[in-house]
Every structure is written in C-alpha cells, then in structure tokens.
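in:
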C-alpha cells in the first residue's frame, strides 16, 4: 500500500527553485532514503511534507488525504512526525520532561489521561533509546549524541505512522549510530514508515529499501540502493569514488 504520494511538488524563493516539480511515492512499512549535496533541497522538501513550509504548487496525499499546507500540529494528529537537522532541545527541562511534552498533543491527551500514564509512556521511550538512566538529567547536560536520540524519541513519542528523520546520524559516534540503526529497524518492524535524509551513506544504505537523489531542487534518480549508487550521474554528482565502493558492496 502506498502511504504518501507527492505530485509535482514545488517551492520557489524568488528565482531559486528549492524544490522543483518533484513527484514520488513512499510505500507503507518501508524505509525511504533521500540523498544529495548540501543545498539540493532535501530539508526544504521535508519542510513541505511536514507543514513547516507552504508550497508554491503541487500535491501531497497521506493515506489518500490531501495534507499539503496543513499546520504541523494537525499533521502530528494525522500520524506524521519529524526530527530536525539542527537539534533544538527544551533547555531547562529534564530528558523525562522533554518526552512528556509530545503527549499533550490532541490525539495522545485522549489516550494518556493521567500524569502517571504520561510519565510511564515517556520512561518507556527513554528506555527504548538507552537513556533511562538519564531521565532526571537536564538536557543542558546531555552530549550531542544523546540530544539527537532524544529529539528522535520526541518525534516517536507522538506515535506516528510516518516518521521523517533529517540527518539522524549527523555528529554521532559509532555507539549512537548502532543504537539508532536498531531503533529505526524496530520502528519499521512495528509498522512505522520512515523517510530519512542522510549524508552518511554507508549507514543509510544498510537501512533503506528505496532511495531518491536530489540535485538543485529536482529529482536526479530514484530506485533501489544498489541501482542508484551505480548510476553514473549520481556517482559523478554526489558520490565520487565512494560511490563505486558502495556499488561494489551492494553487488
């Protein structure tokens, strides 16, 4: 089943075409990768899909419902959540308090009626990302890897059906990369559809089933990871010699 369909999606800033007439589909229950150089329009695309940026033109349908231009908090209630490329923690809050905030969304308020229920849900998320022992630690005192995991957990706490992750591996050491890869795999197995923007290609290619490549706001290529990394245009534009290595590994 196709969960999300983007058709002829565009966002222009004056003469700059940040997203230029892009169309693609994301099947339910898959991990979908988006790659491309800095400035290719990947985060602008995520901002359109998650309600943080109004479109110039196009359509985005989620579960066959038009969602383009809806507010982010409405999309959270519809089952869409995201993390951010630049982590913005709630300074002055503990890790536990941070993960109790999303539970105040409209759909979750009806599910978790008491503080005890909300706290239990937040603690379960902390345990899932390996930060149970830091529940009472201020986010001000967490390292970058822990903050990124907490940001992703904050999105997962909304119980999304579709999760958008913007460079989730950025700045992470191997321990956090391994933990996050396991979390993404578990999310997929639990039925969550995941779309990932990422520059760390080795980590990404081990997770995704389908990849779309962007360049100057447009779609350059799309397909299975092993096919995309062998595409001469992709290798030349983005991957260089590393692309050949990935292609050989995939074969």
């Amino acid at each position: 089943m196709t969960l999300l369909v983007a058709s002829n999606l565009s966002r222009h800033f004056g003469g700059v075409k940040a997203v230029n007439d892009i169309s693609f589909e994301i099947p339910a229950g898959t991990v979908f990768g988006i790659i491309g150089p800095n400035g290719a329009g990947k985060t602008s695309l995520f901002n359109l899909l998650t309600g943080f940026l109004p479109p110039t033109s196009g359509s985005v349908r989620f579960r066959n419902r038009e969602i383009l231009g809806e507010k982010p908090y409405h999309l959270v209630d519809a089952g869409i959540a995201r993390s951010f490329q630049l982590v913005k923690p709630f300074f002055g809050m503990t890790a536990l308090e941070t993960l109790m905030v999303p539970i105040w969304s409209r759909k979750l308020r009806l599910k978790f009626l008491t503080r005890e229920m909300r706290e239990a849900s937040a603690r379960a998320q902390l345990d899932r990302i390996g930060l149970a022992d830091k529940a009472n630690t201020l986010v001000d005192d967490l390292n970058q890897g822990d903050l990124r995991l907490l940001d992703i957990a904050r999105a997962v706490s909304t119980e999304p059906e579709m999760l958008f992750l913007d460079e989730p591996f950025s700045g992470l050491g191997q321990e956090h990369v391994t933990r996050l890869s396991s979390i993404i795999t578990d999310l997929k197995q639990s039925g969550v559809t995941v779309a990932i923007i990422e520059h760390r290609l080795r980590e990404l290619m081990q997770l995704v089933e389908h990849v779309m490549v962007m360049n100057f706001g447009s779609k350059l290529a799309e397909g299975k990871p092993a096919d995309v990394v062998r595409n001469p245009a992709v290798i030349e534009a983005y991957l260089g010699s590393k692309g050949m290595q990935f292609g050989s590994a995939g074969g």
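note: The mean pLDDT is 90.
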